[in-house]
Amino acid sequence: MRAIRFHGKHDLRLEEVPEPTPGAGQVKLRIGYAGICGSDLHTYYSPEHSGTDYTVPHPVTGAELPQILGHEFAGEVVDVGSGVSAERIGQRVAVWPIYGCGHCFACDGGTDNACIDATFHGVASDGGGFSEFTVVPESQLHVLPAKVDLKLGALVEPMAVAWHAARAAGDLRDRSVLVIGGGPIGIGLWHALRLQGAAQVVVSEPSAGRRDVLAGLGAELLHDPFTPDAADELGRIAGGGPFDAIFDAAGSGPALNNALPRLRPLGTLVVVALHEKAFDFDPTVLVLGERRVLGVHGYTHEDYDQVIDAMSAGHYRTDGWVETAPLTAVESSIHGLRNGDGSKILIEVAR
Description:
Layout: E1 2-8, E2 11-16, E3 26-35, H1 38-45, E4 67-68, E5 72-80, E6 92-95, E7 98-99, H2 105-108, E8 119-120, E9 133-137, E10 141-143, H3 150-153, H4 156-168, E11 176-180, H5 184-195, E12 200-204, H6 208-217, E13 222-223, H7 230-237, E14 243-248, H8 253-259, E15 263-271, H9 284-287, E16 292-295, H10 301-312, E17 322-326, H11 330-338, E18 344-348
Parallel strand pairs: 11-12, 11-14, 12-13, 14-15, 15-16, 17-18
Antiparallel strand pairs: 1-2, 1-4, 3-5, 3-9, 3-18, 5-6, 6-10, 7-8
């Protein structure tokens, strides 16, 4: 079968590899769509800052390079291993791709996403979504209802990242929030925060194209941080008041520092994005007003279920911000996204 394998920094190859066979408790999927994630860009350009040490076998999965990438994917069950009902065959599913160590404090509490050694199927594992077929544990499957097609199903993973971040910030009903970054996770946060009851969601994004995408989805409170009077403009958009929560979905140190003074006392800064570079940070702004910082990672099964329910109810649209490309275009798509072209690219694996 064809698969995209990561061999090292700037080294991504389309190769023929053996087709996998499901073992006990596993299912085999024919991949429909797989999304290119911001973390795939980190892996390709700066694997040393990706959160995964590719120089040694992964401590949970034992995976080594070369690695089939792609952890945002949906497909159809085409075969099952022992212990899995044949009734699974034909089901359309999204995959919850996290592998935790299974014995740490986080895993014991059922929050594998917070495991320090956690990884993902398609990051450091035996297989990934940028391939014609892959094998995963049955426990990772989330069946897609009739109103959620495979294209939307491949977006469950990134939308669940945003959903989890919004929930982690606490009850934001009737509150005012700021999202830094209007890429796919920023778009997901805009959806999630509104669906979870926030009264005002401002998105700060320097790209005019991405602001246009958000406007097309219905966002009205959009901010350009590169305008000469950006700080005053942000205050005007927010009605003059501070924000109850700020979400960093950009991974930009300067943007985060510029936004923090707008966080109200006892407010929460939620860091969702990976940062390729360290940056100077003055903790005094947190001390004054007892502001809080919360890092979030991944999602729970509950987040997946809630996103799928919201998708089935028609709350997510793909028009205007989701593009498709063939498996042969993964590397060129990564280059394009790095240069700011487009918002979300789904690889149509069977194309």
